[in-house]
């Protein structure tokens, strides 16, 4: 017995450092994380840090810049176009997200019922999500065209208006127009995700509520909404982030016009940095988006924290 | 409390009829158990009673009121679901008081009734917990508490114990029966477990393939099954069936497979040579010198009794003895059924002869 135990100890001692390292949970765990961390650093952290740095310089296209501290931010704070873009971005995000949520929830509730041709309807609902953004933006561009707009044409034929609507020539018309385009594009995501959430709610809960005497409205208010709230938090966070950082739709439909009235922070940043050549200033505008995004994420983080009823048992 | 009348109720899903005209009278305060194998339509019938499924034809009345077109919430019934259907985002107390809250009753009244129900079910310390934090048995009791708070005309139970482990199931069985004795509310209880049915019911309704095979008190069904299905369904281990013929040569006997002869107390009139199924419950076998030859296959001692599987005329039968027989597989024994409690069924129709 004793001899066997001794030889076993010797065996352990003889095994190399390398082998033992790979038998350690902590070391192995760290090794498994290396690829993910490398990718995150290379493609996320590094560009972000570079963007931060760029925002602190006066780099222009074709020349290396020098460090100028917060000068870009100081000049932006006095720039009315920048503040207009901040207002536009917030307006665009709030208006589009609110309507996307309302329509998305409505569609999800509808698709959760027994409908004829349900799968076909579901496919159609997903359609806007499948079309490339730029293509749908071009379609909207035509829909909003001052001479060929199909909306204006229909309304005139119906005798509701007498002149073509200048969708993209008037600041507020243009703002609502791009919001509408964003809603059209964003609704499928909200609807399908909420539908997935609805389908996880056990039908017997509705039956129980039915027997308990709940009306349709009470069932929605006391069962559907609370059960769906975790998914709503996730969906709306994503929706707000995607809307806030939107670029393609605006850039394709209005390029920020008329007179900057639809410029979002993302499009303004692109215009100043790439079109205008002021890389430093553009990066500063991009950086200015970060506080807003962090605020949105924090909000959803606290919203997402599992409510007490979702937590597991203690016993 | 009220009586319930189910009259010639049919249910079709599309062209597929699952209930073929079911009539069940239920008296005020009775505990009725609908029992049958899965797919027999018992749960569908219960859901029709609750108003969760439409009635294709026939009528269901609760009290004096036909409820065919009455909304579930207006039927004044409470149901305990198989998966309990507790609202996960509400505490135990909120779950139990939800129906009263919807009716707009005052908070004091709700608290009072919830507290009383919680005391009956020993849930008082758990009122602030969420369903996730409860064990299966506790959830089951909350589901019952939700029904009790309603103080309904009728309680409906849809296989409420099937998600519990064996020991808890036995305990809850007693608890439900006690609760019924205390509240005396008319109860309809669906289960596929004949032991639950036997132990709890005032009246058992055995269903099979969308029809009622038989209804009666537990012991009626046990002692006098109307047909071979009920005979085989009620009782555990199941009744043994042997196919054969009646022979009347002075003494009536049953001639089974491979010429095995079993005793009959009295032969049905004019039945010589009639093909029948001979049914004998496992506990009605004795070991006797004038018994039929059998060969032991497996012996299963359970402590309180001994279950013996044996070949009788080439057919496997099971016999249960209170005595602790020391048998080994392959042993030859002589098995004798008690002729006063055997059952004969018509071979073609399965009806009791």
Summarize the helices and strands and which ones pair or pack:
The complex is a heterodimer of chains A (315) and B (353).
Chain A: H1 2-14, H2 17-23, H3 25-55, H4 71-77, H5 80-112, H6 118-130, H7 133-143, H8 150-157, H9 171-199, H10 203-211, H11 216-244, H12 248-253, H13 265-275, H14 279-304
Helix pairs in contact in A: 3-14, 5-9, 5-11, 6-9, 9-11, 11-14, 13-14
Chain B: E1 4-13, E2 16-26, E3 31-35, H1 42-50, E4 57-62, E5 65-66, E6 77-80, H2 92-102, H3 107-120, H4 136-150, E7 154-158, H5 166-183, E8 186-191, H6 194-200, E9 203-208, E10 211-216, H7 218-223, H8 228-233, E11 240-249, E12 251-255, E13 261-263, E14 275-280, E15 285-301, E16 306-312, E17 315-321, E18 332-337, E19 343-346
Parallel strand pairs in B: 3-8, 3-9, 6-7, 7-8
Antiparallel strand pairs in B: 1-2, 1-4, 4-5, 9-10, 11-12, 11-14, 12-13, 14-19, 15-16, 15-18, 16-17
Helix pairs in contact in B: 2-3, 2-4, 3-4
Key structural traits:
heterodimer; A: 315 residues; mainly alpha; 14 helices; flat; B: 353 residues; alpha+beta; six-stranded mixed β-sheet; five-stranded antiparallel β-sheet
């Amino acid at each position: 017995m004793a001899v066997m135990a001794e030889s076993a100890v010797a065996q352990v001692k003889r095994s190399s450092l390398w082998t033992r390292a790979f038998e350690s949970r902590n070391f192995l765990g760290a090794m498994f994380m290396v690829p993910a961390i490398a990718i995150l650093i290379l493609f996320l952290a590094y560009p972000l840090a570079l963007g931060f740095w760029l925002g602190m310089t006066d780099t222009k296209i074709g020349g290396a810049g020098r460090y100028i501290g917060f000068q870009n931010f100081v000049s932006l704070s006095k720039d009315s176009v920048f503040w207009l873009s901040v207002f536009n971005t917030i307006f665009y995000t709030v208006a589009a997200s609110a309507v996307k949520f309302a329509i998305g929830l409505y569609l999800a509730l509808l698709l959760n019922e027994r409908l004829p041709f349900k799968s076909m309807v579901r496919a159609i609902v997903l359609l806007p999500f499948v079309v490339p953004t730029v293509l749908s933006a071009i379609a909207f561009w035509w829909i909003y065209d001052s001479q060929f707009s199909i909306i204006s044409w229909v309304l005139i034929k119906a005798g509701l208006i007498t002149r073509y609507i200048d969708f993209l020539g008037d600041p507020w018309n243009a703002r609502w127009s791009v919001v509408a385009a964003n809603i059209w594009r964003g609704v499928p995501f909200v609807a399908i995700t909420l539908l997935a959430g609805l389908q996880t709610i056990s039908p017997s809960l509705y039956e129980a509520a039915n027997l308990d005497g709940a009306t349709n409205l009470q069932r929605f208010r006391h069962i559907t909404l609370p059960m769906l709230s975790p998914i709503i938090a996730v969906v709306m966070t994503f929706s707000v982030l995607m809307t806030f950082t939107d670029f393609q739709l605006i850039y394709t439909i209005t390029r920020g016009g008329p007179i900057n009235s639809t410029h979002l922070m993302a499009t303004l940043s692109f215009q100043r940095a790439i079109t205008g050549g002021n890389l430093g200033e553009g990066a500063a505008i991009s950086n200015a988006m970060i506080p807003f995004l962090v605020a949105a994420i924090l909000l959803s983080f606290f919203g997402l924290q599992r409510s007490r009823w979702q937590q597991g048992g203690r016993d | 409390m009220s009586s319930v009348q189910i009259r010639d109720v049919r249910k079709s899903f599309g062209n597929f009829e699952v209930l073929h005209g079911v009539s069940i009278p239920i008296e005020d305060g009775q505990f009725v158990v609908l029992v049958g194998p899965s797919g027999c339509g018992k749960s569908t019938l219960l859901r029709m009673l609750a108003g969760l499924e439409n009635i294709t034809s026939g009528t269901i009345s609760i009290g004096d009121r036909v409820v065919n077109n009455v909304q579930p919430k207006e039927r004044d019934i409470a149901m305990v679901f198989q998966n309990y259907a507790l609202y996960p985002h509400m505490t135990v107390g909120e779950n139990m008081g939800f129906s009263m809250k919807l009716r707009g009753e005052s908070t004091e009244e709700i608290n009072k009734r919830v507290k009383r129900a919680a005391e009956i079910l020993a849930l008082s310390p758990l009122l602030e917990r969420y369903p996730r934090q409860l064990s299966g048995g506790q959830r089951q009791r909350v589901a019952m508490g939700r029904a009790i708070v309603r103080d309904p005309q009728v309680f409906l139970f849809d296989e409420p114990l099937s998600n519990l482990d064996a020991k808890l199931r036995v305990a809850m069985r007693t608890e439900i029966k006690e609760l019924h004795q205390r509240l005396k509310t008319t109860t309809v209880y669906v289960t596929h477990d004949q032991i639950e049915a036997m132990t709890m019911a005032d009246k058992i309704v055995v269903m099979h393939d969308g029809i009622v095979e038989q209804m009666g008190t537990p012991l009626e069904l046990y002692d006098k099954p109307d047909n071979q299905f009920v005979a085989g369904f009620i009782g555990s281990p199941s009744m043994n069936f042997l196919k054969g013929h009646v022979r009347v040569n002075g003494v009536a006997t049953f001639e089974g497979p491979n010429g095995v002869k079993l005793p009959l107390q009295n032969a049905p009139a004019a039945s010589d040579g009639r093909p029948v199924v001979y049914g004998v419950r496992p506990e009605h076998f004795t070991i006797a010198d004038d018994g039929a030859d059998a060969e032991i296959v497996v012996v299963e001692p359970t402590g309180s009794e001994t279950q013996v599987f044996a070949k009788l005329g080439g057919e496997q039968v099971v016999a249960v003895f209170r005595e602790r027989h020391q048998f080994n597989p392959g042993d030859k024994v002589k098995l004798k059924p008690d002729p006063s409690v055997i059952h004969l069924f018509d071979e073609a129709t399965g009806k009791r002869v």
